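Re-running the complex after MR caught last week's input typo. The corrected sequence lines follow. Everything else is unchanged.
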Amino acid sequence: MNFLLKKMKKIEPLFEKGGRFEKLHSVYDGFATFLFVSDKVTTKGSHIRDYMDMKRTMTVVLIALMPALLFGCYNIGLQHTRAFGINDWTLLQMFWFGFLKLLPMIIVSYLTGLGIEFIAAQIRGHEINEGYLVTGMLIPLIMPIDVPLWMVAISVAFAVILGKEVFGGTGMNILNPALTARAFLFFSYPGWMTGDKVWIEGLAKNGALDGFSGATPLALAKLDGFAQMPSPMDMFIGTIPGSVGETSTVAILIGAFILLVTGVGSWRIMLSMTLGALGLGLLLNATGGNEYTQIPAYYHLIMGGFAFGTVFMATDPVTAAQTNTGKFIYGALTGIMVVVIRVFNPAYPEGTMLAILLMNVMAPLIDHYVVNANIRRRLKRVRTA
Amino acid sequence: MSTLIRLRKGLNIKLAGKAEKILLPEVAVTRYGVRFADFPGLVARLEVQEGDRVMAGSVLFHDKAFPEIKFVSPVSGVVKEIIRGEKRALIEVVIEQQGNERIDFGPADPLGITREQVTEKLLKSGLWPVLRQRPYHIVARPGTVPRDIFISAFDTAPLAPDLDFAMANVHGGHLQAGINALTRLTDGKIHISQDAEGSRVAELKNLKNVEFHRFSGPHPAGNVGVQIHHIAPVSKGEVVWTLDLQDVVAIGKLFGTGFHDREKVIALAGPGAQHRKYHRIRPGASVSGVLKGNLGEGNLRIISGNVLTGKKISPDGSFGFYDNMVTVIPEGDYHEFFGWAAPGLKKFSYWRTFLSKLVPGREYELDTNLHGGHRAFVVTGHYENVLPMDIYPVHLLKAIMAGDIELMENLGIYEVAEEDFALCEYIDPSKTEIQELIRSGINMMIKEMN
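Corrected-run output:
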């Protein structure tokens, strides 16, 4: 690799201050540090530093997303065959079909988002933040497969600029950028984000076989009661219509395992959010109210975006509560809010996205009270002493 | 037996190169130096010029704010150089050792004289700066009476010397006198914290007029700040003092013999050093004596102190005022191809994203590479895991960044020193200079309170 390193060092002066490509310095730096860890040594404070850096942190999340991504590709193909009565596709064909449909979305998401990140880094004189590597993968996974690419592009631009960069970039944002992108489309182009046409490739354009409904389980539950819903096993495995990466609870659980083993994802949030949703679900089973309250509580965990949101969205360390106690409260309230929106809101069948965004806003408040408790403990000491 | 305080939070960094418990005699060196950076926040006024003759115990400079705090020469000789940096800032006073003249401050029985007399003797002899105070972790201010005095009798930092071994080898007979002198300075207690096994050194075990505590757990359990937090925390308006165990001996020696003599037993450690053993040295002495014939191959960094909090010095630089070890590690000025993505079987880490977590017990040669670029704080919930105090580290750091004095005060700035946050800095994937940040927060507090 010495050859590559030498080449890199040779062109480095071009990107330094006063060099010909000065304006591309952050781009050069981004690629150079991607290939080779910098030779910078410690100058202040601790002389040794952990090998962990932001690139590795984000890579772990990307790896954890892979099972959901791969299953998503397969499911795109599977749903397509069901909708159009295709019987002779192999598993690999379905996967390849889905992959080819998803790939443009991923590319558009990364090109738009990273382009903005590079510009922002250059303006600020910072190094490029790796945060978008994860966001850019999350966005295609929480979109319906039939959403037009230009919509993906503008939602990404909206999320990255107004959701993140105006606050100061990665680490400073209040709302989860990926969910901001989805919410933007949800409210701007509801016809492309809801209903029973958009979840299956080609359905919106071509129409399906007679009698076929492409609605998600949540929408079915809302419209027709839960008798119409797919079996819990189908929902757990994920062979149902839905956003690309969210359908398979199994694949998401594999991702959760990776995040928990490495300690990158917060078990406190995942656990409390699950318990919050399950707890309210059980309570509603007992009290009744409308038809929706009779859905078995555990359905809430395997339907819609709950699993994906719990594992990959609510746990975003920047927008979640930051104190350990706060994480329990934040998670539980998010879980409860998901079920509240699903069951009691007549307009939206799904509540995960809105619940997490709402709690993102509340997270600093939760932390405020947790930190204040710490302050009070310290002040109490003075009085008793 | 004293009760055991169990700490769970923290991290033992498995750095290779521990010192063997063999004590070597002092190697004579002629270059001595007193570095101003060893005393954070100090504004010094020189009392000597280049070419002046000094004795062991002669004043070199004093504190501008508290002129009674004197800093003295550890040896007799000639002031060879006064090193200054940018804007003529003082860096170091260098003394070329000649002869063995020393000032006799006169022996005294600390229990037979008043608090004022003990204070005066410590100030005059230049031993006073061994006393440091919390809040702020700076040289203690004369005129205040500390609530208590705390001494840590064990060090948990990476490769830290076994202080029990050091105590077994210091010149005996002075420890109790040192403690007696300290009891004159406070109306409270003298707290000594030991590790779970306690001490095997009779002189230490049989000390009177002290209260013993025992701590178990990973680093930073040996940090005096952490110990204070668990024994009797410092609240707003309170002041406690801390000092190193070997300096208690130095104080005892001053009262027993009348001389300023801070000879210490220290360790030479680290993967970059060979023949790692214990040495006798006086603070200020050039480390060239300790390093002679003991440096490994390659580009090395020499640190006075431990790898987390020590200072980078040159191969003939001065041994720091408060340090108890010299560490040598390889410099990390190399590029690593896709280093951030490697499985990391040979990379020690706090994080469970490295395969090295699967092989317990191994020791690692760590270098000075930063292993990443600077970012904003992103990850949460991990800094707390290496700080065994009821303090929210990131919230305190952000309060410092925002310059919010009241919030810093409320979040516990009075209890902390940069050394307590060294592990937060070590594990930080965002590569923030956390220790420097803590010191800047402390400086803000000092300015605000005066």
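None of the earlier attempt is carried over here. Chain B touches chain A through 76 residues (CB under 8 Å). Residues 4-257 of chain B form one domain.
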